[in-house]
């Protein structure tokens, strides 16, 4: 198969790129997806209680609003169904149940080896996400009973009346604990560090509201704009302003004190790190569940034996172990499969940590663009907002190049942005010393978050600028004239349906 664009991954990023390509009139592309369905994270995570912690109408494509979300924070199944419907116009471009086995730049384009046969592409788009490789605790011993990660929930395992261990207290853990505790005879939750948790200001959308959204799309556009503005204001409370952060911390600790009267338990659930260093979570029922008599909050998992889990101080006999232990976010599993212009793999290029110019382009890997990759996340706003900005950048690059042309970002541009991000991350709560999924444990470098607001990212990178790139065809190379800029600026985030 020969195409202009090969997209790897069919989650939000891959589907969004494909839909925009189709809307732009591009017909020569393929989407390679290893699973048997689209949806990415929202396909894989089916644990009880799974839901979005970003307002649903900000956590969907701006060009494909969904008037049918039932709540402010949509349940996971609604987001998965939304992505399934979004994929309908591009079904014929999908190659499901297809693994990427290798991708190699041959001097003219990308040669992909897949489980369904070879693919030749001028442009490679990596949209595999960062929550794809579950992190499993490396502790001694082995448990004899059922053990599974929260992102690969085993629905065949019965929890009614069972003794259950939940390992971890991150975003997935606080959502699933109340659901597990309703069914289990006992639950022990094992935590390395307690998170900050704020009240979840959720509410249902009435049938009348959903009908109004369907009949008056401008109302959804206005709601999205308001939600975006509200989220941008959270930057100070998460990152930018010490006073605002201390106020938010106080609110989280008041939430804890209000729901957990027991002083000993409250102490165990009090975070030991700066507010914003880890992901701030939202729940109205986690603390109440943790206070139930059949629920125990204990220290980190240190070892297994066939019948039990062990913390530093205690042994707990259990029937089932649920690992809500997150993902390998700073080392991407696809990186070892992609070999660039010099013969080095992307994993080798990233040996000192992930980095990319505009969070999207990597020196040594021509005509390759990464969506939802290095420093493309936010701690205060929607990931979909960032993905759409990157897609605008990708489309600008494609508009700039005719068939057969090659673009490669300079090493200087990539390095300069990496140094800027490192400099701007110093003094931020993420680098204050706690263990989090933003910082690469190999070198202490903050590799996941954009250090500013989403508005700034959009202003800098939604429009493709060719100045940091070299352009070449076979046998010819030149630097583009300074000031060349061919991308079209689009209104955002409340842009009209495309």
Keywords, separated by commas or semicolons:
globular, 13 helices, FAD/NAD-bd_sf, Flavin-containing monooxygenase, FAD/NAD(P)-binding domain, 8-stranded mixed sheet, 498 residues, 18% strand, 2 domains, oxidoreductase, EC 1.14.13.-, disordered C terminus, alpha/beta
Please outline what is shown here.
The chain has helices at 12-23, 41-44, 76-86, 171-183, 207-215, 217-240, 242-259, 263-268, 286-290, 346-349, 383-400, 411-425, 454-461, and strands at 2-8, 29-32, 94-95, 100-105, 110-114, 117-126, 147-149, 163-167, 186-190, 197-198, 281-282, 295-298, 303-305, 308-310, 315-317, 320-323, 338-339, 368-370, 406-409, 439-440, 445-446, 469-473, 476-479. By secondary structure, the protein is an alpha/beta fold.
Structural class: alpha/beta
* Count of runs of 4 or more consecutive helical residues: 13
Oligomer: single chain
Evaluate the radius of gyration. 23 Å
Corresponding CATH architecture of the largest domain: 3-Layer(bba) Sandwich
| CATH fold label of the largest domain | FAD/NAD(P)-binding domain
Total count of domains = 2
The CATH fourth-level homologous superfamily of the largest domain? FAD/NAD(P)-binding domain
- Largest sheet at a glance? 8 strands, mixed
* Mean of pLDDT: 92
**CATH class identity of the largest domain:** Alpha Beta
Protein name: Flavin-containing monooxygenase
GO molecular function, one term: monooxygenase activity
Keywords: Monooxygenase, Oxidoreductase
Pfam family, one: Pyr_redox_3
């Amino acid at each position: 198969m020969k195409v202009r664009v090969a997209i790897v991954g069919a989650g939000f990023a891959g589907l969004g790129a494909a839909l925009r390509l189709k809307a732009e009139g591009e017909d020569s592309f393929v989407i390679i997806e290893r699973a048997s369905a689209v949806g990415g994270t929202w396909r894989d995570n089916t644990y009880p209680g799974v839901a979005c912690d970003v307002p649903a109408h900000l956590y969907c494509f701006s060009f494909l609003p969904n008037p049918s979300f039932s709540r402010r924070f949509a349940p996971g199944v609604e987001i998965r169904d939304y992505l399934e419907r979004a994929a309908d116009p591009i079904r014929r471009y999908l190659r499901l149940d297809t693994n990427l086995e290798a991708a190699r730049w041959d001097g003219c384009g990308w040669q992909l080896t897949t489980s369904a046969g070879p693919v030749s592409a001028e442009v490679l788009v990596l949209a595999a996400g960062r929550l794809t490789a579950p992190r499993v605790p490396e502790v001694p011993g082995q448990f004899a009973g059922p053990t599974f990660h929260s992102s690969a929930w085993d629905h065949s395992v019965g929890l009614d009346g069972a003794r259950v261990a939940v390992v971890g207290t991150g975003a997935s853990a606080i959502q699933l604990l109340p659901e597990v505790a309703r069914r289990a005879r006992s639950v022990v939750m094992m935590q390395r560090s307690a998170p900050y948790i704020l009240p979840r200001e959720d509410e249902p959308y009435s049938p009348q509201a959903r009908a109004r959204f369907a009949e008056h799309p401008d109302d959804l556009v206005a709601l999205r704009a308001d939600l975006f503005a509200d989220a941008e204001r959270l930057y100070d409370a998460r990152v930018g302003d010490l006073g605002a952060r201390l106020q938010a911390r106080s609110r989280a600790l008041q939430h804890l004190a209000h729901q957990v009267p027991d002083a000993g338990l409250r102490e165990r659930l009090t975070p030991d790190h700066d507010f914003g260093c880890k992901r701030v979570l939202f729940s109205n029922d986690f603390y109440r569940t943790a206070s139930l008599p059949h629920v125990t909050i204990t220290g980190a998992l240190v070892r297994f034996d066939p019948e039990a889990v062990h913390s530093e101080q205690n042994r707990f006999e259990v029937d089932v172990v649920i690992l809500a232990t997150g993902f390998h976010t700073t080392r991407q599993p696809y990186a070892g499969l992609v070999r660039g212009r010099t013969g080095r793999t992307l994993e080798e290029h990233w040996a000192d940590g992930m980095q990319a110019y505009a969070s999207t382009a990597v020196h040594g890997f021509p005509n390759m663009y990464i969506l939802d990759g290095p420093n493309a996340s936010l701690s205060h706003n929607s990931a979909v907002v960032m993905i759409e900005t990157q897609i605008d950048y990708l489309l600008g690059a494609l508009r700039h190049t005719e068939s057969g042309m090659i673009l490669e970002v300079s090493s200087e541009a990539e390095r300069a942005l990496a140094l800027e991000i490192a400099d701007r991350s110093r003094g931020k709560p993420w680098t204050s010393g706690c263990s989090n999924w933003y910082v690469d444990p190999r070198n202490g470098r903050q590799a996941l978050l954009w250090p500013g607001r989403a508005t700034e990212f959009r202003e800098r990178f939604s429009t493709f600028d060719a100045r940091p790139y070299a352009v070449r065809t076979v046998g010819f190379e030149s630097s583009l004239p300074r000031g060349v800029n061919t991308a079209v600026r689009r209104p955002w985030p409340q842009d009209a349906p495309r």
